[in-house]
Amino acid sequence: MHHANHYYGHSHVLARYCGLDDREPPRIHGYLQHGWNIGDGMAADHEFVPGTPIFLWSERIRRRAWSMGRRETYVVGSPWAYLIEMEPDFGAVDQREGTIWYPFHGWEGQHVVGDHDRLVDEIRATEDGPVTICLYWQEFQSKRNRRRYEKAGFRVICHGYRGGWWENLDPDFLYRQLAEQRRHKRVASNRLSSAVFYGTLAGCEPAVYGDPMQLERESHAWGGQPRIERIWPELHGARLDLPVAREIIRAELGADHLLPPEELRRLFRWPNAYQEPFVEDSRLLKEGVR
Q1: Do residues 205 and 138 share a domain?
Q2: Mean pLDDT, the chain, integer
Q3: Total count of domains within the chain
Q4: What CA–CA distance (Å, rounded) separates 189 from 160?
Q5: Best CA proximity match to 251, nearest among 84, 61, 35, 33
Q6: Average pLDDT in the 265-288 region?
Q7: Is 155 strand, coil or helix?
Q8: How many Å apart are CA 34 and CA 28, to the nearest integer?
Q9: Do 77 and 123 fall into the same domain?
Q10: Radius of gyration of the chain (CA)
Q11: What CA–CA distances, in Å, run from 3 to 33, 224, 233?
Q12: Which member of 82, 98, 133, 213 has the lowest number of beta carbons within 10 Å of its beta carbon?
C-alpha cells in the first residue's frame, strides 16, 4: 500500500464507509488520489508501478490520466465526499459565522514565496465577519507566520499533520476539518484547492482571491496557475455564483458518483465487511469526539 493512501486519514474514512475497522484499514491495492490537482490526479514526485490501479476522484481527472497513458483508472469519488455522506450533521452549529481562510501553502520539499502582509490587507478589506486562518503544519510551526496573522486579529489554527511513510498517521484529520468548516459561513483561499472544495461541499460559500503566491521551483508542467484561472473562471473571485460553483465542485469531488461499499471493497481488494456500513461504534464515538 502506497504511504500516500493514508494521507489525512483517507484510507481510514473509506474503511469505515465499507464497514471495516477504521483504526486499522486494510491495504488498498493501488494508488488513491489524495488531493485535487489539474494533472492526472497523482503527485508528480511519486513513483508508480506500471499496471497498478489508480483510484481517482472525478471523471475529468480520469480522462486526463487516460490521455497521459494511465490505463487502469477508476473513478471512486473523494474520501471527503464519503465522509460528508456518512456525517451529514457532524460539527453542525445553529448559526454559521465568519470565514475560514486557507493561505496557499508549501510542503516539506517546497516553501511558499509571497507577501503575507499584503494578503492580510486583502482579507481585511474583503471579509465582513470574523476570520479563522488555517495554516499548513509547517507554516503553523513558524512563529513568524503564525504571529503575522494573529497580530491582524485573526484566529489561527491548524488541522494537524497529514502523516507520511506510515508514521504519525492521523485518522481524525478530516473530522477536525469538517467540524471547523461547518462553523463558518465562508471558505476562501488565494488558490483553488482541495480545502476550498471541501468547505463548499460542507456548506460554506466559496471564494478565491488575493495574491496566489508561488512555490519555490514551482513546476508549470500542467499549465500552473494561469491554466487554473482559465479553465475555472467561475471559481475565482470574492463573491461567486453559488449554484454554479457548487455544481462544478461536486463534480470535481465526485460527490454524485460515490460507489456502494461492496463495489469499493471489490476495487480495493478488501475483504467483505464484518459489520454494517456507517457503523456507530467507531473509535471516534468511543472517545467522545462525536
Answers
A1: yes
A2: 87
A3: 2
A4: 18
A5: 61
A6: 60
A7: strand
A8: 13
A9: no
A10: 19
A11: 12, 26, 34
A12: 98
